[in-house]
Structures are given as structure tokens and as C-alpha cells.
Amino acid sequence: MRIPGYLFFLGGTLAALGAGWAGFPHVIYESRPQPVDFSHKVHAEKAGAKCEDCHSFRDDGTFAGVPALDKCSGCHAAPMGTTPAEKNFIDGYVTPNRQPQWAVYARQPENVYFSHITHVKLGGMKCEVCHGDEGATDTLRPYQQDRISGYSRDIWGTAAAKGMKMDDCVDCHRKHGFEHSCLDCHK
Amino acid sequence: MQTTRRNLFKFLGGSAVGVMFTPAPWRLITDTALWSENWPGIPRPVRGEIKTRYTTCALCPAGCAVRARLVGEQPVALMGVPAHPLSLGALCPFGLTGHHLPYHPERLKQGPAHEAAGAVANAIAQCGPNERIAVLDLRPGRTASWTYRRAMAAVKNGVYLTAPRPLGGAAVNLAAARTVLSIGVPLLEGWGTPGNVLAARAGFRLIQAEPFESRTAALADLWLRINPGSGRSLALGLTAQLEGKAMPAQAAAETGLTESQIADLAADLAHNGPALVLAGEDVPEVAPLNRLTGAWGKALIARAEAPVPDSWKKAAPPAGLASVPDGSIRALLIDESVPGDYIPWNAIAPKLVPDNPVVVAFAWSRNGYGRHAQFTLPTAVYPEMTGDAPAATDSPAAAFRISTPLVPAPAGMVDPAAFIAGAAGMDASSALRERADAIHKTGRGTLFTCADAKSTPVKEVKPEDFWKALNEGGCWVDAAGKPSAPVEETGWQAKTPAPQEASDLPLLVALTDLPGATGLISPLMSKLYQESNLRLGPNRAALNPASAAACGVSEGAHAVLQTRLGERPIQVTVSASVPPGVVEVGASPEILDICGAFSRARVAQS
């Protein structure tokens, strides 16, 4: 059987399109799990914790980010429940006093200056505007990192979570009339 | 199915076309660009615990209080301390960027310390009866200065040299003045303590007499444009007017003002007193003028130095360079580790012995005296260094504060005080502590602590707590006494002769930006100090368009500034704000070595 030559061309095109759209996003990112299986939902619903209880501002206005171990140890010096996740956390981190190496989804690159207090206190923005429903999730999704640039998938790329990319920042600044210059964020 | 090479190429061609319609190639381009921003060797901001530490700025004699924000152990931002009794929360642009200085590209990293110590020891041993061993201190009044004085008292024929003190050592109380006449003093651009000047500014009327519209002139209530180098004539005219005598004929002619303008100015000073008159060292008539305007003993007052241990008082007295005979200095040790008044090398060189003098410069870079010294030894820079700051010119009371390091000094740095004390066989390693104890022993004054912004009487503080507080940015301020008139010093002598006409040197030199002359400013302050001409950078010269045309130079041209003492390459800026016949030069040690203020010069094409 003789196959027309244009079908080879078409096959190559389709193969490239498939690889580029379906395969490439899987290849470009490497995934790694978070060190602890943490449930925001349990802490929010059962413990009644609010975002700012753990992700707080320091006295000088800077944002503390992900809480250090001593914040967790205040409640979890001994198990409060029966879940394996809590037991693993206490055995692996609290008892040996070892800081969990959290991978921060929202970590911006070094060339970006972002002030939480400006947006939260002055701008009155809710955490969910940028972080989505992270505070209601029952488990932490794997951290995905661009293999070449090293950036978190949440802040870079077409499939990134809504709210963390530069385009999202620009859109919001434009919408609220705060689009002044590149130097607003890129110091 | 038959796979031929032709079909394979068709498949590959189709793939190439198809891939262009996917995000892959475009994403790889941007990702690679981002990756290149994170190559090894590219500096990254440190991450760590946010801390606050307090210290004292050592970049100028103001000694402003500094609150440093550190990430881990790395200072990332410097700011003022709002409630501080002396600096009142302000910090100048130099101070705000002081944490960049340890990374200055022109910084010296190593020097021949052992060889220098040997050469100095030999010079001391071989010093003849008519020869001197001298220390030149560019910022007197520090505890290190006392160490130099004690060391020079301990060695044979030791001399302690300083630049003439501003206002002859008198203190200025701006808050007591209702009118300030500034004859060329950059009152609003780095003079005194920035916070204190700004706080007092609302309480006095400022009259600026200056040839150029400097920042101070622009912000003054009145700017009197006088001819360059005519400050003495203005002072003489005002003095005569206030004494009711006939105004000297040359006063109006030399200043470029009318007689009625000078008379009105004198009346203004007389009716709106106390009227403080400030001027540079080229106007010695400022002392009698302040007596006539009522500022003497009120706005211009005597101030004691912070106490020192009794055992230090057998120290060599401060002396001016003029008091040393020519050809007599066998060894000269110059401390330029902190910026101070640069004394031109042409004034120093004749004082050295003609045969193999030993000159040691303690410096952060080789741009200053290091160009002339036999040995240049690297020193720690602020904020790596430990040292104290005496009271600033505009502080009515004595003060003592310590500049404690925010970052450790790199290995190989030389402490000038330890070096000079060692050469004299002394140990001065605990001098700061001894002085702090001597101050505490008097029981006078108050201690301000930065962390809680409280002032506590020294009597209520234990010696250990006093020392600890000083090392944490605290400040001792002497008790306010009754203001008294300063003792007039002989240092109030005109050191700059009146400019003489010279046909071969048609231009008059006006120096600008003297505070930045030593160059110890953040290398990142490039927009203001290096790239733009908002302030003339080092080795930049500005000419009036007419003068530039007469010299045959144009905007941006590389030219040569020639004086009687030599020549230096410059780059020309043409500006209508410069009066005709004047060349305005950004001061730098190289420029200061060949010309003082208002010396004669010419600009020639290079």
C-alpha cells in the first residue's frame, strides 16, 4: 500500500501538536510532594483557625509567610488527634525539632518585590484573591517547579493558578488605577 | 507501508511546522532567559530572620543614629531613629545607603601592614632632633583622635595634626538664631546634622550669599548672588555698616552687590537678631561680625568635649600643618579611614623631609592620599568599623555615641588607632570603654536608648548598662549649661588668598560637592552622582556657554583643567547657571590636589 506523502507531513504536524500541548507541560515541570500532609480545612474548621493566626505580620509590618515549627509545636507538642499525618509530623519534625522544608507555591522570583501588608491592610484584599481556595483544601497538592527557570508553576506559565502571575498583578493594578510603572514591583 | 527518506523528511517538516503552534518553543525561549538570570554567581538576596539593630553613622561628623533592618546577619535597609535627641530621625542619602559601602568596587583588600610597621619603627628610631613624627587626623575629636594624641606624646618629636576646625571649634545653636546669613555654606545640603537643620529651619530666615544657585540658595528665603571669592569683602562691608563706619569702597565692587543692598542686609541682620553669620575658612571676619549681630554667645557658643580619662590629658595638643617647619616630617601617618576635610597634597608634601620620608595612609581606597603614600593600608569602612562620633558642629551640647559594626570587617583590614598606638608602644584596645567609663563617672547628662526611645539620667544607669546601651546605638548627651561665648582660635585665619588676575589662567575655580570629595558614597548612587549632572561628579567641570566657547570646548568634551600646581583631565558640562569666567568643578582628591577654592585656572582641549 502506498501512503500519500502529505499524510507523513500531516502526521508529523499532529504528533508535534500533541506533544507540544499535552506532553510538554508534564515534561517541563517537576513535581515534588510537600514534607507534611497538612490540611488547611481541618485547621480552619475544627481548630477555628484564621489565615492570620499562622500567616501573620511581624511587628515591623513584614509578612512572616509560612509559619516556623515553633508555631506548630505550640499545639502539636503531643498528638491532638489520631491521624497518621499528625503522627508523622510530630515524629518527623516536632520531636527532633526539625524545620519542615515547605515548598512555597506563591514564592515570587528575586526580581519581584511584593508587600503583603500593602495589599492586605491598605488595599483590603482578601487572601483568596491571589491564593484561591488554598485555605479550604484538605491536602496539599504537589509543588510543581519549572525545570529550566526554577519558578513555581503557580506564578509562571499558562497553566498556573489564577492570581499569582504577573499578568494577574497587572490586570488588578490596571483595574484599580494603580498601574504606575515597572518599578512598582521590580525594584 | 514503505518508509522512505523522503517520507521521513516530510514527517519532520510537518513536526517542525506543528511545534510552532504549540507553547513549547516559545516557553523554552523565555524559560532559558529566566534561567540565565539565575546563573551561579548572580547575587541573591539573603533570606532569614528579620532583625533590628541600632548604630551610629560614621560617614560624616554629624553621627546620625541609624536603625538597621537585617535579614539574618545582612543589613538590607538603614533608616533614622525618630525620637533621637540629636539626629531627630533623619538620615541623608549617603547614610541611607551606607550598607552598600563594604561592597564598593574601589575598596582596598590588602596592604603591606608589616612592612609599614617596620618602616615607621625605623623612622621613629632614626628621627633627628629637628624632625617630626606626625599623625594627620582628618576627623578630630574621636576617641581614636585621643589615641593619636597620646601616641604622639609618647614618641620623640611626635606631632598631632588636624585640619582647621570649622568655626574654630565653636558650636552652632541654630535654634537660637532668628536670621542666618550663610556665605557659601551648604547649610541645607549636608552641613551639620540633617535632622537638626531641618527641624530648626522653620525658626530662622535664611539668606544665602553665593555665586551659584546651589540647593541651599534655591531653598533660602533670599539668595544674594555674589561674585566668586568675594565673601571676605561682603563680611567687611557688613561689619563696617554695623559699626556705623563708612563702607569700604571695594565691598560693592568685589561682591557685585550694590552699596544699598549691603546696607539693607546689614540692617536686616541688626533688626532680626540674633543673626548668625556662617562662612567658610576663607572668611575670618565672621567672628567679629557675629559679635555685632548678637549671635556670639547665643547662636555661636562654646562647647566642651565629652570627658576623657585623666590619664589621657598628657596628650599632644592639636596643631595645624602651618605650625610644622618645611622639610621636617620624617614619618607621616594619615588616617583617612573616615571621610573628613581633605588637605591638598601640595600643602603636605613640602613638610616632609627630602630624603625618604615614610608616609602611611590608612584608607578604604587608593584614590586619596594613597596616590602619594609609600604604604597604603586598607581599613574597615562603615558599617564594619568600631568608633565613636563626637558632637557635630550644630550640637550645642557635648555628645558621645559609638558606631558599632553591622557586618564584620574582612580579614586583613588595619585599625589605624591600634597601628599607631602599637608604633608608640601603647595598648589602646580598650580606649572606647575607658572613655565611656570616664563619661559615666561624671554622672552628667542623659543616656538615650534607641530601642525604647527613652532618655535616662546617667546617674541612674550602672556602668555596665551604660556601656551596653552605647554599643546598642545609645547616645550620651551632656547636660545643657548656660550658653557662653566661644574662645576665638587662631585657626580662623584666611587660608585662601584673594584670587589674583592672571592672563594665562582666565578662569576662577569654584569647587562643589565637597562632602562627596572623598568618594565614600554608595556605588549604586550613580544616577545622582555619576551619570547625571544634577550634582557634578568627580572630575566634571561646568562652564558658562561663553566661557566654553572661549576655551574651545563643548558639552561632553574631554578637556584638561590647568592650574599653577598641575593639570587634571576633566569632562566638560556647559551650563548657563555658571557665571562667565568661572569653572565649577566637582571636588575630588585629584582636583583638590591642584586647586583650592577660587584659585585661577584654564580649561584646554585635551
Task: Tell me about this structure.
The complex is a heterodimer of chains A (187) and B (606). Chain A is mainly alpha-helical and 187 residues long. Helix content of chain A is 40%, strand content 4%. A two-stranded antiparallel ribbon of chain A has the order 1-2. In chain A, helix 4 packs across helix 5. Chain A is extended, with a radius of gyration of 22 Å. Chain A starts with a helix and ends in a 12-residue tail after the last helix. Chain B is α/β, with parallel strands linked by helices. Chain B has 18 helices and 26 strands. Chain B has a six-stranded parallel β-sheet with strand order 12-5-4-13-14-15, with helices on one face. In chain B, helix 8 packs across helix 10 and helix 8 packs parallel to helix 11. The longest helix of chain B is centred in the first third of the chain and has 16 residues. The radius of gyration of chain B is 28 Å and the shape is globular. Chains A and B meet through helix 1 of A and helix 1 and helix 2 of B.
